[in-house]
């Protein structure tokens, strides 16, 4: 069977549910949840008019969502933005929560997000994971997960699932890290190492960063290219509100797009890849600096101080990004480009040469390049929110597990 | 509103239909049509088991499809591949048909395809359209369309729609040719010039070529990059069985991916674009030949005769294609690459350098590069079949118009 290049996990309101009476009910439960989540507090009548069902049908659905603890009634005394009097509905701040985790090259982080999208607990451990074997790293991560889950439980939340962001390629099984060169991990089945009691999703940090931008960014279009960097450079392609994952799950490897085809050799086997010009270590090398732990902080600090070598290195990195992005924009025609992760912190010195290269090479109006406000928080928040979105997309499934 | 980057037109069985009882009936009619189209002749019981509905529900749907002339009953005397005795159902060879048309740089072509996928009428006019204004070209095309429709009507077919392939960028309104540099057309509204009596869809030839490959190719995966060339080089990105169109409808511009960023200037405003190394005219120039009308025939003939200049020029074009495709594969991770259009006829001389460049630059197992068997027929067949697919995807809509 052909694995779909497109998002396989449910990404719209219950899109993958079967086309039966039962499936219709589940899809309609999802519509109610999404309407209240996006625009609540709302009265039953307002929900009905938003989603095009009768008031009676909506009442039945709402009753079920209140019974299973996903919606709550604010009562007639707090009509909020509701037009006519009536009991306003809101997404519950108790009940299911999404647990997000991140395995970074230099840190571990975990957080719990409720259905309203608020972070309710978090834990971080700084220190390099480079060259450590997976078992002790995952054991430490598991400790942080248990601490965050316990904190969340004290606030009446239970974990609906765990999503883990990793700096590497993840297979379409959403649990195997196929290759994480900067951790020196290969073919690591995180599903076998992590606690089995929560539904688990593992994904590339760039993908979770792109989803965070889609869900939490300001005025993010539904079609964009999210470019992020830690040591490598990755991109998330968001198409019509979903991630484009690739047949093997490896789409978005912007770092290995050839920029100068006869340039220096790259770990991928190619030559002159973008990563050789715009990856953090390449920029440090070009600026004559030693790679340490806080690479972005070092570069940003020196650039802000006017260090000419660092500024030149970042300018050249911006030019290389502009060349690689010219190819990507010609292929994909997205509405915009968002710089996230480490690139967000370096944007003031990358953007001028990047934008001039893009406008020199592409016809028509310049494409919007914006800078993520989530920065390095993106992947962790995207992971936690992916669990929350899955609950909103199929509330009936989580209600069965409640 | 954000235009979706992904295929907006219905591309799966009735995917875009509303989620009501009526919508469910329409989606189930589509499922019956697709099952019989893909695997027919089939009995009602076989259809029911294929699509997971009861025999009684399927009978009601089948009766409606027979009444509106989309299915026909072969009778119990021809059980075909049906397991148990019963009247076998087949897609009708009369009724609605798809009219495909192509405006090429050097020709015009029109054909009619029935719901079974057979070409039932066709008309072609050779001669250059380069530099001609749109009105007389479209007038000639309209003459060919009327002739093909008349021929098809004599066989009991009526036109369910007209789809036109053009060598240029088409807006998401699916009727405006924004830019066709090799015709020298700009902002031409074909909807205003073509006869208004059929539903009209205009699309880029590379897109229709990619869809033809998806629908008619042998063992084509659901996720692939279809690369074709006439004078320009275009690509169709097929993702999970649908075209990725881009925000403005301009995705797939592989010809303007930078290959050597300091190379020769291009019409697009960029430098060193793939088209400057692997477009037909670039290859002719590199081989020291004059561009004439049958450019591919000239190159293929000389290459087959062993002309060293032509062979070298094609080898270098293959290398440039390999560099640009390395970037595309890293970004998109498709299952394979299909060379179509003019590239199919030149494949014997392009493929060796193209494949060696790809395997030199990309890690892991070599990606399958295959050659389209449809060749230059692809866009025309893709256009006609897109109309047929729309009928299969929502048979109720066409039945209302019958």
Largest interface here, residues on each chain?
Answer: A-B, 55 and 55 residues
Helix and strand succession of chain A?
A: HHHEEEEEHEEEEHEHEEEHHHHEHEHH
Report the C-alpha radius of gyration of chain A, rounded: 22 Å
Tell me about the largest β-sheet of chain A: 5 strands, mixed
Tell me what portion of residues of chain A adopts beta-strand conformation. 15-25%
Plain-language structure description:
The structure is a homodimer of 402-residue chains. With 402 residues, chain A is α/β, with parallel strands linked by helices. Chain A folds into 3 domains: 21-91, Winged helix-like DNA-binding domain superfamily/Winged helix DNA-binding domain (Arc Repressor Mutant, subunit A); 96-210 and 379-388, Nucleotidyltransferase, domain 5; 219-373, ATPase, nucleotide binding domain (Nucleotidyltransferase, domain 5, 2-Layer Sandwich), CATH 3.30.420.40. Chain A is 41% helix and 21% strand. Chain A has helices spanning 21-39, 44-51, 55-67, 134-153, 190-193, 205-216, 275-278, 280-286, 295-304, 308-332, 341-361, 378-393, 395-401; strands at residues 71-75, 88-91, 95-103, 107-114, 119-126, 157-166, 169-170, 176-180, 185-189, 200-204, 224-229, 233-239, 242-243, 336-340, 368-371. The longest helix of chain A has 25 residues, at 308-332. Chain A is globular. Chains A and B meet through helix 1, strand 12 and helix 10 of A and helix 1, strand 12 and helix 10 of B.
């Amino acid at each position: 069977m052909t694995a779909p290049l497109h998002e396989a996990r449910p990404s719209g309101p219950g899109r993958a549910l079967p086309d039966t009476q039962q499936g219709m009910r589940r899809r309609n439960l999802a519509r109610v949840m999404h309407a209240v989540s996006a625009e609540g507090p709302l009265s039953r009548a307002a929900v009905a008019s938003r989603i095009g069902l009768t008031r009676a049908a909506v009442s039945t659905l709402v009753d079920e969502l209140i019974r299973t603890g996903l919606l709550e009634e604010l009562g007639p005394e707090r009509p909020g933005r509701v037009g006519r009097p009536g009991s306003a509905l809101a997404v519950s701040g108790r009940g299911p929560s999404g647990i997000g985790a991140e395995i970074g090259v230099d840190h571990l982080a975990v957080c719990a997000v409720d259905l309203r999208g608020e972070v309710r607990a978090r834990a971080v451990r700084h220190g390099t994971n480079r060259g450590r074997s997976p078992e002790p790293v995952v054991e430490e991560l598991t400790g942080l997960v248990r601490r965050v889950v316990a904190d969340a439980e004290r606030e009446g939340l239970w974990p609906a699932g765990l999503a883990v962001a990793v700096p590497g390629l993840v297979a379409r099984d959403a649990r195997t890290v196929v290759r994480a060169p900067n951790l020196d991990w290969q073919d690591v089945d995180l599903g076998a190492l992590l606690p089995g009691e929560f539904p688990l999703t593992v994904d590339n940090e760039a993908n979770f960063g792109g989803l965070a931008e889609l869900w939490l960014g300001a005025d993010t279009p539904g079609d964009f290219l999210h470019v992020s960097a830690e040591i490598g450079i990755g991109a998330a392609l968001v198409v019509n509100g979903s991630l484009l994952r690739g047949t093997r799950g490896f789409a978005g490897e912007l770092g290995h797009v050839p920029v100068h085809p006869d340039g220096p050799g790259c770990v991928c086997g190619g030559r002159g890849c973008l990563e050789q010009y715009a990856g953090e270590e390449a920029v440090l090398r070009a600026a004559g600096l030693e790679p340490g732990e806080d690479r972005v902080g070092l570069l940003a600090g020196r650039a802000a101080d006017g260090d000419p070598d660092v500024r030149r290195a970042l300018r050249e990195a911006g030019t290389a990004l502009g060349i690689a992005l010219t190819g990507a924009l010609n292929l994909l025609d997205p509405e915009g480009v968002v710089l996230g992760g480490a690139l967000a912190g370096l944007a003031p010195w990358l953007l001028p040469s990047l934008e001039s290269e893009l406008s020199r090479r592409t016809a028509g109006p310049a494409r919007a390049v914006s800078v993520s406000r989530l920065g390095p928080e993106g992947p962790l928040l995207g992971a936690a929110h992916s669990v929350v979105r899955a609950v909103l997309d199929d509330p009936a499934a989580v209600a069965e597990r409640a």
